[in-house]
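FORM 12-B: Structure-to-Sequence Request
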C-alpha cells in the first residue's frame, strides 16, 4: 500500500480533539476528521500500464508513430491484455464517438462502453475482479469514420499487473461492406449505438477458427463503385485509417501482418450503383493482383450475395484459376435471406452466414474448429519413441509425413507446444501427407494422433 500523506494530519486532528475542552474547536476538528476520512477512503494509487507494454496485444490497423498513444479507427479494432492482482481496471481513451464491446474471459459484458470525449478520458471497465488471471478485450464496434481514436494506457489498482498472453497462430483478413461492419445488426434506431462489428459473420468466423483477424469494412462501400461516388474499398485498402473525403491517414505496412486467408464479401453496393459485369470482373482481377502483391501465399475467398455481382465474381474467379493460372482463389455464393433492418443481417442471420463460410474455409484450408486439450498434449512426450508417424523436411516450407501402417484417409493433427490445434490433414492415396508450413511461425510442433503417436517437428524461419 502506498503512503497516504493525509494520515499524519488526521492523527493530529484526533489528538487535538481529545485534549481540547472548547466546543467549537471540537466541532471544527470533528468535521475535519470526517472530511479527511472521506478523502482518505477515496484516494487510490493507480498503476499505469503504458500502451507500448509488450504484454498488450493489438488486432487491427493501429498507427504506432506515437507508441504512448497508438491511434486507430477501423471498426473491429481490438486491444487485449491479461491482468491479475487487481480488482479494478480502467483505460484511457481519446474518442468522441466510439462504442466498445468489453469481453472479460470470453464473456461479453452487458453494457458497451460509450467513449464520448474528444480529449483523453479514463473509463472504468470493471471494479470487482478476483485476483486471478483475467483476459480483457476492448473492441471498437461502431463506424465513426470522422473519429480517430487514441489509446493512452491501462490503470490497475495497487499490486495489479499484466502478463503476456499468446496470440492465435492463424490469421484472417476480412473485407466488406455494411454486412461485414454490422450495420444495425442489434436493432433499428441509433445507427452508431446498434452497429456492432463484433457480432458479424466475419468476427464469428475468426472466433470459430480461434484466429487473429483484421476487419476492414465500411457501410455503403463497393469493390468498384460505391453510392454517391465515394471511394471503393481497394482505394482505401492501403490506408491505416478509414477516412471520408480528404481525411489524413498514414499508409499501411503490409509486411507487419500477413494473413493466411483473405475473405472479400462485396458487390451489393456495386450492384445498386449500376456496375456492369465486365467492369466488375476486371475489378476482381485487379484486386487479386493487389492482394497477391502483398500476400503471395494467402488463400483468397470471394463471397457474393445472390443477384449482386455473383455471376461476374464467379466468372472472374474461374478465369483466375484456369486461364490465368493463379491457384488458391475461391468463390462462394451467399444465399442467406436476411431479416434485419433495411435489408441487413441481424445476429441470427450473421450466425447462419458465418456457419456457411466456416464450412467453405474448412474445405479450402483443411483447418478444423475443434480444440485440443493441454492435458492431451502432455501425453505426447511419452509417445514419441513408439510413434508410427514420421516427419521429414523436404524444403523450407514443406514437411513430408509418412506412416508405417496407416493408409489413405487416415486423419492426423498438428498441434503447437501449448496444445492448440494448428491444422488437421489426412493421408493421400499414396499413403503420405504434405504439410505446407509457409504460414507457420517458428517453433516446435507435434504431428500425429493419440492412437498412432506423435512426431516432433521444428519449424525454423
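FORM 12-B RESPONSE
SEQUENCE OUT:
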Amino acid at each position: 500500500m502506498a503512503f497516504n500523506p493525509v494520515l499524519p494530519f488526521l492523527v493530529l486532528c484526533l489528538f487535538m480533539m481529545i485534549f481540547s475542552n472548547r466546543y467549537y474547536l471540537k466541532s471544527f476538528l470533528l468535521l475535519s476528521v470526517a472530511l479527511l476520512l472521506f478523502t482518505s477512503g477515496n484516494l487510490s494509487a493507480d498503476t499505469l500500464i503504458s500502451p507500448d507494454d509488450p504484454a498488450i496485444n493489438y488486432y487491427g490497423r493501429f498507427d504506432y508513430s506515437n507508441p504512448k498513444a497508438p491511434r486507430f479507427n477501423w471498426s473491429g479494432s481490438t486491444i487485449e491484455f491479461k491482468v491479475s492482482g487487481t480488482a479494478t481496471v480502467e483505460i484511457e481513451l481519446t474518442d468522441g464517438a466510439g462504442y466498445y464491446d468489453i469481453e472479460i474471459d470470453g464473456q461479453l459484458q452487458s453494457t458497451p462502453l460509450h467513449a464520448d470525449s474528444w480529449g483523453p478520458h479514463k473509463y472504468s471497465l470493471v471494479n470487482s475482479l478476483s485476483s486471478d488471471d483475467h483476459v480483457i478485450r476492448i473492441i471498437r464496434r461502431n463506424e465513426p469514420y470522422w473519429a480517430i481514436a487514441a489509446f493512452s494506457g491501462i490503470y490497475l489498482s495497487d499490486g495489479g499487473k499484466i502478463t503476456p498472453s499468446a496470440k492465435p497462430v492463424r490469421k484472417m483478413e476480412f473485407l466488406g461492406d455494411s454486412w461485414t461492419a454490422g450495420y444495425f445488426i442489434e436493432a433499428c434506431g441509433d445507427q452508431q449505438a446498434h452497429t456492432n462489428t463484433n457480432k458479424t459473420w466475419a468476427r464469428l468466423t475468426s472466433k470459430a477458427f480461434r484466429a487473429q483477424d483484421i476487419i476492414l469494412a465500411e457501410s455503403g462501400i463497393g469493390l468498384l463503385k460505391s453510392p454517391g461516388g465515394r471511394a471503393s474499398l481497394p482505394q482505401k485498402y492501403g490506408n491505416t485509417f478509414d477516412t471520408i473525403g480528404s481525411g489524413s491517414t498514414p499508409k499501411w505496412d503490409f509486411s507487419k501482418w500477413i494473413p493466411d486467408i483473405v475473405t472479400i464479401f462485396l458487390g451489393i453496393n456495386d450492384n445498386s450503383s449500376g456496375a456492369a459485369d465486365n467492369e466488375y470482373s476486371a475489378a476482381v482481377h485487379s484486386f487479386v493482383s493487389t492482394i497477391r502483391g502483398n500476400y503471395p501465399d494467402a488463400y483468397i475467398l470471394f463471397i457474393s450475395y445472390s443477384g449482386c455481382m455473383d455471376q461476374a465474381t464467379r466468372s472472374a474467379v474461374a478465369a483466375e484459376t484456369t486461364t490465368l493460372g493463379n491457384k488458391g482463389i475461391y468463390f462462394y455464393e451467399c444465399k442467406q435471406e436476411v431479416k434485419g433492418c433495411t435489408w441487413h443481417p441481424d445476429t441470427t442471420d450473421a450466425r447462419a452466414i458465418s456457419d456457411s463460410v466456416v464450412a467453405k474455409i474448412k474445405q479450402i484450408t483443411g483447418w478444423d474448429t475443434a480444440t485440443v486439450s493441454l492435458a492431451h498434449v502432455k501425453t505426447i512426450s511419452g509417445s514419441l519413441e513408439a510413434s508410427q508417424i514420421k516427419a521429414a523436411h523436404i524444403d523450407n516450407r514443406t514437411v513430408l509425413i509418412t506412416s508405417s501402417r496407416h493408409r489413405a484417409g487416415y486423419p492426423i493433427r498438428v498441434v503447437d507446444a501449448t496444445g492448440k490445434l494448428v491444422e488437421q490433414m489426412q493421408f493421400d492415396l499414396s499413403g503420405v501427407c504434405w504439410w505446407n508450413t509457409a504460414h507457420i511461425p517458428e517453433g516446435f510442433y507435434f504431428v500425429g494422433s493419440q492412437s498412432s503417436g506423435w512426431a516432433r517437428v521444428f519449424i525454423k524461419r
